[in-house]
Design goal:
342 residues; mainly alpha; hpI Integrase, Chain A; 2 domains; two-stranded antiparallel ribbon; 12 helices; globular; DNA-binding; DNA recombination; DNA_brk_join_enz
């Protein structure tokens, strides 16, 4: 099992860094802090953990925990001592193990970010930032780039997908729902979590019905929060109409609005007012691709976002402009979405 996130998991293996933030059931790193923690720790513990857990997106936090637990299990399985801070040798072995098991560069990087997150919270030496580790991660990216099978959706493929959606849906309402969702996902470069809810109905960043207005030539969409806007600064996205009426987001959403129930909540919902889920979005996409004879494993919900990013780049739009639309601040983050369609 992974150690508590906000405390050093092994008192005996770390005697130079003062770790004061404790999870329930853990003890202080140094005996000199025991009395202070007993006085203040229980009183502030819940609030401290709440603030720290909400310092990153909920899904990101879950991924960090998964990475930390995977690292701990790896060390147990291979007979390595549970030392903290994690020795550089352990981190290097872990990267090699993940690479050999076939994990993607992004997953490996997320796992390392989780380990780094834990170390930084506890003011521990963070060996995931060492030069040799970063070079290994870069080598993994280069090696995996040749094997990455996730392909971008093109405008042509999007048109084919919406053409077979009616044959997969049980009603005209469902057809309008998925046609609008797919068109908006592509042209708005949305993350799937911004248009759907999770399996447990969690809608952290889901676009709401009241935050979208349908105009004649464009769609102003207010995104209250997002993965890159945890503080809720908010952003208005302007999605333009398209010449191809079959995939035009303005036409598709207008048609959906004519039959959508008059209820508040997430933008996309079924006739019974239940929100569209991530699973349903992905399932209909997969079925559509199967009908068209495409390999579903090559296309995921993120292929819409990858597809529009790639399309804009191929059409000659400036990198800075595309980066704004994709809503990434760093060049490396948005450039990884650009793929050569086949």
């Amino acid at each position: 099992m992974a150690p508590p996130v906000f405390s050093s998991p092994d008192v005996a293996t770390h005697d130079t860094t003062d770790v004061l933030i404790q999870s329930s059931g853990t003890r202080c790193i140094k005996e000199s802090y025991q009395d202070a923690y007993e006085i203040f720790g229980n009183h502030f513990e819940a609030d401290i953990n709440y603030l720290l857990q909400n310092s990153v997106a909920s899904n990101t936090f879950k991924t960090y925990l998964g990475g930390l637990e995977s690292f701990c299990n790896f060390r147990v399985n291979f007979g390595l001592n549970q030392k903290w801070p994690a020795p550089l040798q352990d981190v290097i072995f872990f990267i090699t193990h993940l690479f050999k098991t076939g994990l993607s560069h992004s997953t490996i990087n997320c796992y390392l970010s989780g380990i780094s997150f834990f170390h930084k919270l506890n003011n521990l030496l963070d060996n995931t930032q060492c030069f040799v580790v970063r070079k290994m991660v870069e080598d993994v990216r280069r090696a995996k780039s040749k094997l990455n099978s996730r392909l971008p959706l093109t405008r042509e493929l999007l048109e084919k997908i919406v053409s077979v959606v009616p044959s997969l849906c049980s009603s005209q309402f469902e057809t309008k729902l998925f046609t609008a969702a797919f068109s908006l996902a592509f042209h708005g470069l949305f993350r799937v979590g911004e248009l759907t809810v999770g399996s447990k109905g969690i809608a952290d960043h889901t676009v709401l019905f009241n935050n979208v207005k349908v105009c004649d030539e464009f769609l102003p969409v207010y995104l209250a929060t997002s993965k890159t806007d945890q503080l809720g600064t908010g952003k208005v996205l302007t999605i333009s109409s398209q010449y191809n009426v079959k995939i035009c987001p303005v036409i598709a959403l207008s048609s959906y609005y004519m039959v959508r129930p008059s209820v508040e909540g997430p933008l996309f919902c079924h006739y019974d007012t239940k929100p569209l889920t991530r699973y349903q979005f992905s399932a209909v996409l997969k079925k559509s691709l199967a009908v068209l004879g495409y390999k579903g494993s090559n296309y995921k919900s993120r292929s819409f976002r990858i597809g529009m990013d790639t399309t804009l780049s191929i059409e000659g739009y400036a990198d800075d402009y595309v980066k704004i639309l994709v809503r990434w601040k760093s060049d490396s983050s948005y450039l990884k979405y650009i793929r050569v369609p086949v």
